[in-house]
């Protein structure tokens, strides 16, 4: 395992740290670096290029002259792509240039980029980004002591407001989090300055041989028995019957059924007795 010195912001050695061979000593794969850089740059493209076709350019829609008899070439519109100030054929349209890249390829490219920086001795590990002020001058002096005179990529883990404010006004200096590190940024900057906490985070994330975290075994707990509901005391039969009769009396009668049904009877008054027999 390679051993790298840990320095403070004054450039003095305060310790050492061992780096994993699988992350910082991997074989450099140029093809993966190219694919990861191309994927990252395509994702940054805005894709807003746009040209006007025949239906969008300015101009009237009338036919300029008749179809036959003039001796000139036939023409249907002044907005034709064959004419000056006409529409554009097969021009660019707004679209997204982003595409999906396999996660294993991206992690492999990041391991190759970190290994290349370590092989070129352009990797610096600092104890912590402990800045007392947000002034740009303070960070500029600290970077000069860390041999980051050209472009530098600063990698930190966690929120650091002073570092964020001090680094955003420096040309050629970029600050990124350990979980957002890109191979293109590592290759683009001359010096890579990483905090000790960010190194531990990167080693844990990029190690291909790491074991998945297993949840501790938890014994199953039997559910608690449901409380038994006590039955309400039964009312006396006579009291229940009296309550039922009182409830029926207080209920309003239903429409159309207020009286019991009775058979229809016809009275044959004033009809001769001879006819009564016929009706009976």
The CATH top-level class label of the domain at 3-27 and 110-206:
Alpha Beta
Largest sheet: 6 strands, mixed
**Rg over CA atoms:** 45 Å
Q: So, the CATH homologous superfamily of the domain at 3-27 and 110-206?
A: Ribosomal protein L4/L1
Polypeptide structure, described:
This protein is of the alpha/beta class. It has a domain at 3-27 and 110-206: 3-Layer(aba) Sandwich (Ribosomal Protein L4, Chain: A), CATH 3.40.1370.10. It has nine helices and six strands. The protein has helices at residues 21-24, 30-44, 103-119, 136-145, 161-167, 183-188, 196-206, 237-250, 273-279, and strands at residues 3-7, 13-18, 123-126, 152-156, 173-177, 191-195. Strands 2-1-3-6-4-5 form a six-stranded mixed β-sheet. Strand 4 (152-156), helix 5 and strand 5 (173-177) form a beta-alpha-beta unit. Helix 2 packs across helix 3 and helix 4 (136-145) crosses helix 5 (161-167). The longest helix has 17 residues, at 103-119. The model has no long low-confidence stretch (mean pLDDT 84).
